[in-house]
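Worked Example 4.2. Consider the chain below.
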Amino acid sequence: MSVPNLSIFFVVDPPKYQDMGCYLAASIRTHFSEDLDLIGYCPAETIADMDPYALAIYKKLNVDIRPIDTAGVFDPPYPHGNKMVAAMQPRRTPYSAFMDSDMLFIGANTSDNIIKSGHVSVAPATSMMWSGQDIWPHIYNACDMPLPEERIWLSRQRRKKLMPYFNAGLIVFPEGPVTDEGETFVDVWMRLAQIIDQVDLIKKRPYLDQMSLPLAIRAAGLDWNILPEEQHYILGGKLRGKPLPDNMDIKMIHYRNMKVLKEVGMLRKAKSMLEQHVGERRFDKIDPEKLLADG
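Applying the procedure from the previous section yields the following structure tokens:
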């Protein structure tokens, strides 16, 4: 059997991310016709709390649930860093994509649309209102790296181009060694994040994963491939309450919470995709034993 080209992985920490991950997995199985590895990572200390209905859904959708050891990785603990711990785990595919659990595919897609050789595919951050641009020299100096010359448009803060800053909720990267020292991209990302975490900076939490991401891409000898907004359409914020634009072929939405998803009429679609694969729209209606017995 051939190995898929891409693994898509996400965090399934119960209860919130567990349930969101069920919708995400159903949307992936609906909109990708190719073979993909789906993996849900859960901190070892909470994996026993996962609900039986969720475990049955994940098994039905061929999602491999794996524990991760997050204890002591960051001091103090940094829940946003769980994605980095998950990213460091071994997978069999040549590329992997981390996705926040509060994402939903709503249009047909292929892995070729989000993979680019020699690059890490990312989406611009919404904004950077938590700090001015004067923080970047301190971050790059801490890692003994020069400031990049490139400037980009953030997705919802467009008065002028700013330093490269990406949403850490969608990261598509090559697996395997990428540096002369044998480090993987994720090795570099974790190493630089740990360096920055020791620097006296404002707002390191909860932005450490995002502020270290552009540095890691360049330090790994890769470049960033900025995905079109259709591949990462962020809901909420200044767009709260507005319908999805009808002039865009949106493939995936990043919705943040269920209320926002419902406001744009996509909660019904999420439930319909779940029903398509597991036969029920509501979690409380799912009989785990029956679902697994049905194959």
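The longest helix spans residues 16-31. Strands lie at 6-11, 37-43, 63-68, 95-99, 103-105, 119-124, 166-174, 223-226, 233-234, 252-254. Compare this with Example 4.1 before moving on.
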